[in-house]
Design a protein that fits this description.
Length: 453
């Protein structure tokens, strides 16, 4: 029986192109964490700079994700997908050739811009190329490829850092990018749905506001003290955030983030849940490899394999949890899942990088992964169900941007841990685990209070 399709001419090549494109962002988002100590040592970067190696990528990705999707609607998704891949590939070359921290950070920011363009358009191409059951299978295949890329990234990146050097993790992007561009150029058809002007004002204000907030939090966490400049950065972030809301309100449904979305109580609750839960998770993904490498003298490849249970458990259990939430509704899975995740963070209070991985690290990781598996699929479904049909695409994109913003804020605060050594590093990690546990449990309580029965 032939799958139900839209007018797409090459369905398999369409899926292949979007999978390859999005895998660039998925791999890069996971592989850099295990290379962080090696990058810092080679570039002689101080502890205050290390969080920016992650944040410089997450900042434009968080701020411009919705804008990148709107640009694809306006100018054509195929064109924007290829453009995003080209930007990402050129930025990867810049990262690999960087001779200092400033050059690396600039190239990482350019990578984030490329990812913010290619990510929403890869998914948008699937949505417009397939219909009915075939669309569900295509999106499921795309998501599975992202999970596999995220799982393979840390061990592969760790091996490359060990065997050749950290710069090779960026050269790895080039053949993937070349294959994605080639397939997209010959196999994809140009599609566009939108007209009108893009929300340039909203995009600029969102980027600058998030940048000011990230700078202030990073400076505060690495210096362990607030200064007039830091308070000024926080004040600027608040003012710019207010201006962003005012601009979006003025633009109405033409805004990058239509404020009508927030008329839904479940959507507001899901947004807060996402920010808290992915903020807790983002901090762990950055800090745990660093703790193992610096505090436990793990090799980068060992630290990469230490993270492997997380995507394996999520990938294995998410489908079953999606079916369960279809029967129970999203409220209970999104309440219990984050609370279980919080218990996993609490188990990491036993984390000791010099002790056995199997008894001190793995139990917490496994419980966190199990809790997240209970939340990931129901969260996506709940977000789409919390708004009317004309806002489902924007709501999904906004929720993805909020998840990355949570990781961005957590990474900015990681300087308080990354600046420590020895026993102080372990103590700081335990303090971060407590904060993450509180955030995860709070996100579960938020779901219980705001979602419908």
């Amino acid at each position: 029986m032939q799958p139900e399709r839209g007018a797409v001419r090459y369905p398999r090549w369409t899926i292949a192109a979007t999978m390859l494109a999005s895998s660039l962002a998925f791999v890069d988002g996971s592989v850099t964490n295990v290379a962080l100590p090696a990058m810092g040592a080679d570039l002689k970067a101080d502890p205050a700079t290390l969080p920016w190696i992650i944040s410089a990528y997450l900042l434009p990705l968080s701020a411009l994700l919705l804008f990148g999707g709107a640009a694809g609607d306006r100018f054509g998704r195929r064109r924007m997908l290829i453009g995003g891949i080209v930007i990402f590939a050129l930025a990867s070359i810049g990262c690999a050739l960087a001779s200092g921290a400033a050059g690396l950070l600039a190239s990482r920011a350019l990578q984030g811009i490329g990812a913010a363009i290619l990510m929403p358009n890869s998914l948008g191409i699937l949505g417009s190329s397939f219909t009915g059951e075939a669309r569900g299978r295509a999106v499921g295949t795309w998501a599975s490829a992202g999970a596999i890329a995220s799982a393979v990234g840390p061990p592969l990146g760790g091996w490359l850092v060990d065997a050749v050097g950290w710069r090779t993790i960026f050269y790895l992007n080039l053949p993937i990018a070349a294959a994605a561009i080639l397939i997209a150029w010959f196999a994809l058809e140009e599609r566009r749905d939108g007209e009108g002007r893009l929300d340039w004002g909203g995009a600029i204000l969102a980027t600058v506001a998030l940048g000011a907030l990230t700078w202030a939090l990073t400076a505060w966490s690495s210096r362990h003290a607030a200064s007039p400049g830091i308070w000024g950065g926080l004040g600027a972030a608040i003012v710019l955030g207010g201006l962003f809301v005012a601009v979006e309100r003025h633009r109405g449904d033409r805004a990058m983030m239509p404020l009508a979305l927030f008329g839904s109580r479940p959507f507001v609750g899901l947004t807060l849940l996402t920010l808290l839960l992915y903020g807790a998770l983002g901090g762990l993904i950055v800090l745990l490899p660093y703790l193992l490498i610096v505090g436990g003298h793990y090799s980068p490849v060992q630290a990469g394999f230490a993270l492997l249970p997380f995507p394996i458990v999520i990938g294995t259990a998410s489908r079953a949890m999606g079916r369960l939430s279809g029967r129970l509704g999203a409220r209970w899975p999104l309440t219990v899942g984050p609370i279980v995740t919080g218990l996993g963070f609490a188990l990491l209070l036993r984390a000791d990088p010099t002790a056995s991985y199997w008894t001190s690290i793995l139990p917490g990781m496994a419980v966190i992964a199990l809790g997240m598996a209970g939340a990931v699929a129901p969260l996506t479904t709940a977000v789409l169900s919390s708004v009317d049909d004309r806002h489902t695409g924007t709501a999904s994109g906004f929720n993805s941007a909020v998840a990355r913003t949570g990781g961005l804020i957590a990474t900015a605060l990681c300087g308080a841990v990354l600046s420590r050594t020895g026993g102080a590093l372990v103590d700081a990690f335990h303090a971060a685990a407590i904060v993450a546990a509180i955030l995860a449990v709070a996100s579960g309580i938020t779901a219980f209070l705001t979602l419908d029965r």
